[in-house]
UniProtKB/TrEMBL annotation, chains A, B:
Gamma-butyrobetaine hydroxylase-like N-terminal domain segment(s): 22-94
UniProt cross-references to Pfam families, sorted A to Z: GBBH-like_N, TauD
Protein's pathway: Amine and polyamine biosynthesis; carnitine biosynthesis
Recorded family membership: Belongs to the gamma-BBH/TMLD family.
Top-rank taxon, per record: Eukaryota
The protein's name: Gamma-butyrobetaine dioxygenase-like
Domain TauD/TfdA-like: 123-376
Amino acid sequence: SSKPSTGGEATCKIVAAEHLHADGRVQVEWSSGDRSEYPWVWLRDNCQCPQCFHPVSLSRTFKLKELDLKLKPTNTLIEDGELRVSWSDGHESRHGSSWLQERAFEKQPRAKRTLVHRVPRQYWEASLPSVDWTRLLQEDAMLLQWLLLVEQYGLVLVHGVPKHSGCVKLLAERVAFIKRTHYGRDFSVIAKPNPSNVSYSNNALALHLDLPYYFYKPGVQLIHFVHQYEGEGGDSLVSDALQVAEHMRQHVPHLFHLLTTVPVDWVDHATEDDREYFKTLKMPILCLEEDRQTIWRVNFSQPQRDSFFSECPLDKVCQWYEALKTFHDLLYDPRFCRTFKMESGSLMTLDNLRVTHGRVGYPDGGEVKRHVEGCYIDWDEMLSRRRVLQRRLLHQTEQ
Amino acid sequence: SSKPSTGGEATCKIVAAEHLHADGRVQVEWSSGDRSEYPWVWLRDNCQCPQCFHPVSLSRTFKLKELDLKLKPTNTLIEDGELRVSWSDGHESRHGSSWLQERAFEKQPRAKRTLVHRVPRQYWEASLPSVDWTRLLQEDAMLLQWLLLVEQYGLVLVHGVPKHSGCVKLLAERVAFIKRTHYGRDFSVIAKPNPSNVSYSNNALALHLDLPYYFYKPGVQLIHFVHQYEGEGGDSLVSDALQVAEHMRQHVPHLFHLLTTVPVDWVDHATEDDREYFKTLKMPILCLEEDRQTIWRVNFSQPQRDSFFSECPLDKVCQWYEALKTFHDLLYDPRFCRTFKMESGSLMTLDNLRVTHGRVGYPDGGEVKRHVEGCYIDWDEMLSRRRVLQRRLLHQTEQ
């Protein structure tokens, strides 16, 4: 997977270079006639020669303590499509045309790189995305498609899954590995008496996202319907909290603002394998990125919202509840909520930072058989796997 | 660990209650003469009766769809130190004095609750915190002390550790469980030829924090010196990036600002157990909480800073490098950096969101023996364990 540090197939070549001494940059002219500027200090820091960059680990070995902020070019050459600069610190750096082009400080190459980081999210269409289990496990192209669909839509159904235990683990390990929580690695949800968690019952489950009290809340949830309840009940509900939040931003901005700014105390007291856990975390319902625009995480779970509400000013409590209730009601609005019954041998993939899920109750009784198995995978591993497959299958050579 | 939902030992009792209809709140008067106000909607939402609150899972079962934002009190009683309110929705809620006191919307009870969430951080004193391995493993009080020290100082040394493999796993499982990364669960650092990661060599390692390209970057690192190199070299360096950052905030605020606002591309290309990983993440060197004041995470690693610098405006690059270099130089400043040689049979605990670590190089050669073992634990699990132990050992009854 390693590529030569310089050279490569550039769509256009460097034809000239001129130093802008006042700005401390070199201006490169491309065969297309376009120009790009690169700061000297950045070029030196990112010299790709084997002394400065380790070609196996693909990482910088040039030391920060050796970086001279006041360095200047002493000689500049263009040879074999490479920019070769000799510096006042005695080093000569070489940078190929394609390497420089990919890293240009202009809008277009940056937008391309952004897609390597994250693929844009989309709202659901009439039919929900779905893939076939056997192809998902056997074909890398289908694995890539599933990864992209989860990233884009936050919900992907998988059909044709075997009706036995172990499938969620198999799929998680096809991606990377399971995200362990205090509830274990993979877990079964079967009605059991005196449950320590409300999920472990046959009751209806209101729309929610899992484990809001985890700072490192699991990113993606796999839910395998090993055996679905065959009578009436046990249906699934899903609703896109991102779309609902954007709806609120547009129509009730003052309530949206409260959901993005008032921290909520989330809590869980659990005992698993004789060990107690006491998780608690303060975080708003809707978490915005540093741009204060993009929603990156939604927290919503009625049972795990603490009675402590320790950062909400007293005079905002009533309106915050109005915002909460509005959000709740919209999640159930038919414009956003889908209800369907998963069949035995099917699997649901959910973005646990975005898509709420719930369950219609089903009757209690000795004859009831419903077995659901689940586990989590973190987004770090999902995105990593998607990038590796894109590079391999789509011949994207970028590192 | 469950406690009665109402009643309990209150330091003072409710003596009177009066409704403030314009604000939708009840004002409670305590035996001390102080008063506290509670919004009606919050009281109803947090009714602690067995219909509304599940006493085993300690979680709310009252449904949001049943919450009437316009509910009003129809009757109010104080009996046995309990506030009993009948509501216009037909329900009667009961709340005990101590339960209400702990959740009062005033500053003092809230400050107390904040300590349950996080304990304040402190800078290092002349001698670094250390504990004894045997006591750490055998005494819960010592485990609690170690957990608190890691939370406060971000660095704790452990002495008297056995000189064999498996100790980091043992300690991680005494807390909860290991945080797995693409480098595995626990890992050995021994010099090996042609390393895929610069750590796996005998070279000096500059001060850094691990895995900056992980969105869910491991919270705490355990490093066990199973066998230290006995000649000259192999010393450890540690430096508190939080203290250095605060120093910069005070003395060079314009550079501090750049480190907190300019996202850096972090990257790792790894192959472990025949599987490729391609992690990349944009995040500043210094990450601020929503208050734009508190530093919650530091990212710093020269090898894993990408040559893509895809969100830095061209005209800020040079000054950003000045900020980076200043930060780097201060990390090595004797006011902040400590150097010492860990002995065989000792262990270092590091807050991987805060404290940088490095290594002095040691000679290569067939006779060299140095064996270090490491693993990670997430802060979610560290804090959970601390809270459970505080509740058990310090008789803190709060949920």
